[in-house]
């Protein structure tokens, strides 16, 4: 199942000649309950992304429902299907921390992180790719072509994966800068992984990506991923 590719242009596109620094704020992993802010990264940035993944059970074996509305943040892409986790990317230029509302999870968990890009304002993204516990992999579609060179990032989440061994290295050696790597195994699913593409480009070729689950034999675990560019 795929989400239609999109291009969100929020400001006039200026020629991008500098590879943006991509900085992550402190990731948050929570069980269901009250609303929770997600810390912003430290520094000055022109565009922010919020990566959010949700599972309906405390071991990450089931996807949650629809994505929440987050004040001052625009939904870029989301996918809720049979493969956990439910996954979404939001964007904003505000400098105040986004607040994830009470998700009404009786036995579930969520993970989120805010990314700051030091240059660029327009957002370009691939479709969200999805895989289950049988394949433990998915294929990312190529990104749309931006009108100018952009800084690209990969963001992924597995419903039950180990930090440091679940996503790295990515298929291409160009994805060598790890921005965030948050474990989500056992009682703390889902995980989060973010890497930066280290070359300015108008688009990024799609690729197949494997993720590794813990305790996934015969159960409904999964993973999702997306490519996002800021120009």
Strand-pairing-aware structural class = mainly beta
Strand content: 35-45%
- The general outline is globular
Residue share in helix: under 10%
* SS summary, helix count: 0
**Rg for CA atoms:** 16 Å
Strand tally is 17
Quote the distance from N terminus to C terminus.
28 Å
Strand count, sense and closure of the main sheet? 7 strands, antiparallel
**What is the H/E string?**
EEEEEEEEEEEEEEEEE
Mean pLDDT: 86
- Number of domain units: 1
Poorly predicted parts: 1-7, 9-15
Task: Provide the descriptors you would attach to this structure in a database record.
single chain; 231 residues; mainly beta; seven-stranded antiparallel sheet; six-stranded antiparallel sheet; disordered N terminus
Structure summary:
The chain is an all-beta fold and 231 residues long.
Detailed description of the structure:
- This protein is mainly beta and 231 residues long.
- The chain has one domain (22-230).
- Helix content is 0%, strand content 37%.
- It contains no helices and 17 strands.
- The protein has strands spanning 6-8, 22-24, 28-31, 36-37, 47-55, 74-79, 86-92, 99-100, 109-117, 123-125, 129-132, 137-139, 151-158, 177-182, 192-196, 208-210, 222-230.
- The strands form 4 sheets. Strands 1, 10, 11, 13, 14, 15 and 17 form a 7-stranded antiparallel beta sheet that branches. Strands 2, 3, 5, 6, 7 and 9 form a 6-stranded antiparallel beta sheet that branches.
- β6 (74-79) and β7 form a beta hairpin.
- The protein is globular, with a radius of gyration of 16 Å.
- Residues 1-7 and 9-15 have low confidence and may be disordered.
């Amino acid at each position: 199942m795929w989400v239609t590719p999109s291009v969100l242009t929020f400001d006039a596109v200026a020629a991008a000649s500098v590879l943006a620094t991509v900085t992550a704020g402190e990731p948050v992993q929570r069980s269901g309950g009250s609303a929770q802010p997600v810390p912003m990264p430290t520094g000055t940035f022109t565009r922010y992304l919020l990566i959010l993944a949700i599972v309906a059970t405390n071991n990450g074996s089931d996807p949650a429902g629809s994505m929440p509305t987050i004040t001052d943040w625009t939904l870029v892409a989301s996918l809720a299907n049979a493969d956990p986790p439910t996954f979404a990317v939001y964007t904003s230029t505000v400098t105040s921390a986004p607040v994830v509302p009470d998700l009404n999870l009786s036995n579930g968990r969520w993970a989120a992180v805010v990314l700051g890009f030091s240059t660029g304002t327009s957002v370009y993204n691939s479709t969200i790719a999805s895989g289950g516990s049988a394949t433990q992999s998915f294929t990312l579609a190529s990104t749309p072509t931006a009108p100018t060179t952009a800084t690209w990032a990969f963001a992924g989440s597995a419903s039950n994966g180990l930090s440091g061994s679940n996503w790295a290295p990515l298929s291409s050696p160009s994805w060598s800068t790890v921005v965030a790597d948050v474990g989500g195994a056992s009682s703390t699913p889902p995980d989060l992984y973010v890497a930066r593409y280290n070359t300015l480009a108008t688009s990024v070729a799609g690729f197949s990506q494997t993720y590794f689950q813990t305790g996934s034999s015969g159960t409904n675990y999964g993973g999702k991923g997306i490519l996002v560019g800021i120009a």
